[in-house]
User: What shape does this take?
Amino acid sequence: MFTGIVEEIGTVVAVERGTGDARIVVAATVADGVRLGDSIAVDGVCLTVTVQEHGRFTADVMPETLARTTLGERAAGDRVNVERAVRADGRLDGHLVQGHVDGVGTLLSRSPGARWDDLVVGCPPALARYVAEKGSICVGGVSLTVTSVGPDRFGVSLIPTTLAATTLGGLAPGDRVNLEVDVIAKYVERLLGAHLPAPDEQATDAPVPPRDHEEGQA
Assistant: This one.
């Protein structure tokens, strides 16, 4: 479990590609605080540390992850947001982030402000229904507050700290980012859906209007 509060911007040292999978090596000072088997988020993707060295860590990336996230596009020299798993006795400064990316969005526009930037991110319509104004969303591993919502996009505002301490400060229109919606919204939909009749069941269960005369009566 993560919070979406990025600890450090790491650098991809190498990407070793296999048959459908890959192995990624990331240089980051937080690597000295992890052990083999620990979870670590890279651009919002939960990965398992398989090799730990001074100042760097290695993780395997499965075909599913390569297909559903931007990690398949990463190359040596790329900068990535890094966060270690949250401690149970720590503060939850962002929001509940699983590191299970729901889809990939695209930066549509950014408008610089006096000390902030307003971003509009395009997202698949199937994900937009989970996004609520003033709710939380994880973009590239960064916990953000939603400022506006559309059928296939949403807006966020980046404060100076976010601009300086994450890779979102360098995003340009057209760049792709990993998206994870609020897990609570998905569970609410799942739980409510189990108790709502399907459309065909609604038609079957609808009350039959009474007839003026029963069969066989004049």
